[in-house]
Amino acid sequence: MKTIQDFNFKDKKALVRVDFNVPQDDQLNVTDNTRIVAVKPTVDKILADGGSVILMAHLGRPKGEAKDEFSLKHIVNEVSSVLGKEVKFVEECVGEKAEKAASELQAGDILLLENLRFHNEEEKGDEAFAEQLSKLADAYVNDAFGTAHRAHASTAVIAKFFPSTKFFGLLMAKELQAIDKVLKSGEKPVTAILGGSKVSTKITIIENILPAVDNLIIGGGMSFTFIKALGGHIGKSIVEDDKLDLALSILEKAKQHNVEIYLPSDVVIADSFSNDAERKVCNIREIPETWQGLDAGPKSRDQFNDVLLNSKTILWNGPIGVFEMSNFAAGTSALGDSIAEATKLGAFSLVGGGDSVAFVKQFGYGEKVSYVSTGGGAMLESLEGLELPGVAAINN
User: Angle between the 170-180 and 376-383 helix axes, to the nearest 10 degrees?
Assistant: First the structure.
């Protein structure tokens, strides 16, 4: 893997693709700077070598129009604060203004370009646009794992203009190593937890990870499709009736790969989809007709805990209950506790995918697991075994 550690940036300008698609409040102040903090090690290394950094990013979906609300000028102060250094800003990313600003950079300087998506050419993967961007620097660094699954000008096309000076940033390298640890080099036993509501969105992930894992815990809404396929009564619980045969074939494939599958044995059920609903615990195969399962029950939590505490490598993607409602968050919290405990005992734990990352952040588990992925879609496509365009561009 060709990373920035393999190059000395002294007197070189590095064009660094970062993921600064950060959440903002009504006043356009940054409300979560995690993605900015994540690229600091890469910027620090380039500056320490005696180089200068040109940051390029997108924000929101301006659809090719220069809209003030999507301007990166609103995040300059936050970027300066996190990087501990004044960041210059130029209100263009290509053309005369951008080239002038880049040419005036001294060693140790940082420049932030305007939103790449103010140009339609970015998302179209336009080669001429990528070439214009490439004129700004001597080296290209991709440190934006969150956009690595997009074949955009700044993530996939631009690398060809830097045949010998294209590198992964330190964040990108960490992301790829974490996924590799789960899928290829992880210490056994390897356990994957897949939650969320639908089997259909996880099929390719399941099929791709079966050869790599020893245990697969299936929880959340998707577990009811498996339980119904096995002849259980699931009441009004969420189910994909057209995926029952698929669920059975996944269980069969797991057997062929000697993968132990764990489904919830009991659930917290409710008489309506509401935090204030009446609730009780019952066997997952015997849910009354007008009730629905909204969280993993106490026996399931204990069973999952036993599996996780005996695991050396753990992948967690998706909650196992409707954690957004406090009365149905206990299962996912217990799972977080089990993963944190296993990590403390020496397991490597990777959390990825929108909802589980949201849970980890909201409930303070970020410091208790080994790695929290910064890229939702990119992480999922990696787990599906797809080569990401942004990764292929550096590797090829």
Answer: 40
pLDDT on residue 78? 97
Catalytic entry in 232, 366, 377, 385: 377
Does 354 qualify as catalytic in the annotation? yes
Cβ neighbours of 181 (radius 10 Å): 18
Catalytic, out of 35, 117, 150, 202 = 35
The CA-atom distances, in angstroms, between 10 and each of 34, 49, 162 are 28, 5, 17
- The contacts of residue 326 (CB under 8 Å, 6+ apart) are 275
Q: Under 8 Å CB-to-CB from 99, ≥6 apart: which residues? A: 135, 136
Residue 124 known to be catalytic: no
pLDDT at 214 over 80: yes
| Strand 139-142 with 110-113, pairing | unpaired
β partners of residue 168: 3, 142
Q: For residues 35 and 387, what is the distance between their CA atoms, to the nearest angstrom? A: 23
pLDDT tens-place string over residues 177-208: 999 998 898 899 999 999 988 888 888 889 99
Q: Which of 198, 253, 285, 312 is labelled catalytic? A: 198
Say which of 60, 64, 232, 354 is annotated catalytic.
Answer: 354
Output b/e per residue, 102-131; b: 16+ Cβ within 10 A: beebeeebbbbbbbbbbbebbbebbeebbe
State both tokens at 137: 């620097």
Q: Check if 352 is active-site.
A: no
* CA end-to-end span of the chain: 11
pLDDT digits (tens, 9 = 90+) for 33-72: 989 999 999 999 999 999 999 999 999 999 999 999 999 9
Torsion on CA atoms 43, 47, 52, 58, rounded to nearest 10: 10
- Is 117 in the active site? no
Residue 354 has pLDDT above 70, yes or no: no
